[in-house]
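Why does residue order matter? Because the sequence determines the fold. Keep that principle in mind as you read this record.
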Amino acid sequence: MRGTRRTRVCLAGVLTASVLSGTPAAVAAEPAEGRLTDLVNPFIGTQDEGNTFPGAAVPFGMVQLSPDTGHSTGYDYSQHLIRGFSLVHLSGVGCAIGGDLPVLPTTGDVTRTDYAKYAAGFSHGDEQASPGYYRVGLDSGIRAELTATARTGVQRYTFPATDQANVLLNAAQSLHKPVSGEIEILDDHTVRTRITGHGFCRDTAPYTVYTVTRFNRPFTAYGTWNGTAITPGSRTGAGGAYVRFDTTRDRTVEATTALSYVDPHGAEVNLRAEGGRSFDTVRRQARDAWERRLADVRVQGGDPTLRRTFYSSLYRTFLAPNVGSDADGRYTGWDRRIHRAKGFTYYQNWSLWDTYRTQAQLLALLAPREARDMALSVLKVDEEGGWLPRWGYGTVETNIMTGDPVTPFLTTAYQLGLLKGHEERAYRALRKNADGVPPAANPGIGREANAEYLADGFAPYLKGRPHTKVGDSDYDHGASVTLEYALSDAMLAQMARDLGHGADAARYATRAQNYRTIFDPSTGFFRARDAAGAFTGNPDPARGIGFHEGTAWQYQWLVPQDLPGVISLIGGEQATNRRLDSFFAYDKLLADPARTAREVWVHGNAYAYYNAAVYNPMNEPDLIAPYTYLSTGQPWKTTDVVHAALTLFTDGPTGMTGNDDLGTMSAWNVLSSIGLFPVQPGYSTWGLSTPVFDRVDVRLDRRYWPSGGFTVTAPGTSAADRYIQRARTDGTDYRRTYLTTGSLRSLRSLAFTVGSRPSEWGTSPEAAPPALR
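Structure:
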């Protein structure tokens, strides 16, 4: 992503599965005892700026207890020093945040307070990870093990025989920018902290976390530090603390750390509710929680590598958003006041520019109860903070990325039936957001360029315009922002129409056509316009300005509400298919899909967003692009492109296609592997392509999905036989290239017959996903 993906590296040298045979022992070749968790490799994406983490978490947990090696977002597989095991991480973001309370076991005298200096060496040969569990042997001879509940991180340290076994708790250093820290030793078992930090991509407003750590045995000594000054016997400090144990006989120390974003009492509540269990019990419960999640999708066929990458992606999809309320329901709202969630769990961490395209839809399918609560939490942000969020971290708005991503996020929840009883409440918030901008006193940007967009039909490109608030500015990316606003208007129009707001629906539907205002007939591409309305910047669509993390080539397909209109602007189906073939390097793709993916699409620097005329499978603007062929009468090419892009997911540390952005890219992998993809994000349209598995059984919650689940079959699907010859839904021939959410609700089976050559299936004009009017 995003404003969160500022540094990316080349994946042209992504290792093949055979080279990766020596990757971490976290994953067995086949699941032991049929456990799907044994197919998950948490190390995928921990190298080359994938920015995932290998540590312990439960689905959507508040705590992600994981090692930090010195990399800006936590763990880097190429580094070999661990600074500490800290409580909070976000999977796949590109800006430093979290890393609160790094804890590290040591032996001997405590002489250093900088975790970069007291960091412990380790080797991957003595390191393992699986869902809910992490283990590493440190060069000091200490073995560290981590597991977690929703609101606690549980540690087990096995020391050498010594009377100087220490645990260092650092309240002054983290991945973000620390503002202040306080640490207090309460008794001979317990340490409490308050940590305030900020700085996600920009100097955002501060947030505060509270922790309490309880050890399973008494300390023999303790002390605290401020700066570099260490005071043995002191109970309070602003930097950190150490506690000491005698492990000459009993070499094991266990500790449980509870986290709260509310207050010290909240941390105690969480410790009482989720603590008090042995390490092995918590580890088993965490594994079982993951097993239940993963078991909602069962695949057959495909080689072991394909299954590992699939289930690892499914695992990462469930890592966020994160529980934000304490066990008693209290949470800190965006008004910085304490509230209590009634009838729902409050969630936080909203990478909406990313997740509205893939992860929101997958969670609505597989975790509808949680997805409902997530949508209600976003509405609470509006009610308590004064405006809907853009990119929210914890209790603060970061304003990272541009456009209006919250609208398709919430209309997805509406279209998939998650907002029953809250439809008008959600619509009021979305209408306010779509028709205005946040007041100056509100930290949010909202639709920052809305005044010009509503008056002129486009967001102007005003590079260098002074920023009035922290974060990214829509004026720096006027062309892509216009496309994003128009997409959101289209989705809001559908919701307005359903709810009986006819005048609003017509108004938003008209605005959904504003993508046309930035189409330059002289170039045949979208272009930025300045404040006076003139097209500006280099006319070369690979080198123009005003597109956030992309080019006109990469953004030209981001009009899912009206692809027929885009096709007409380009010059018809034939002209559009020629452009698509050029964009995807289709001739090269047919000759060598994997090489094309790595050497043509990922050209040189995989995260160089600009100056490119080809598909970028690593970033959000192009996530829907392969499915454009469904609207041009050549649906088999969607399968060709999607299956080539799937080769970028491998089962080693470099196997993540760019930053995961809280499950975004992982969800793309899962959905595309199943053959069912949300081609109109924010609405009810699911595009079809060939699955990569012979059979996929999807189990769904009957409270939201009356069928209780469906099965997708494609017997014999392979690189050689990947083209759909025939499709059937519940035994009846199906000729369209898409399904609707309504049809998914009653669907029992989606059966594909595949072959070695493209067929006529899905090629008629009526087979294509319709435009939204």
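Residues 478-498 form the longest helix (21 residues).
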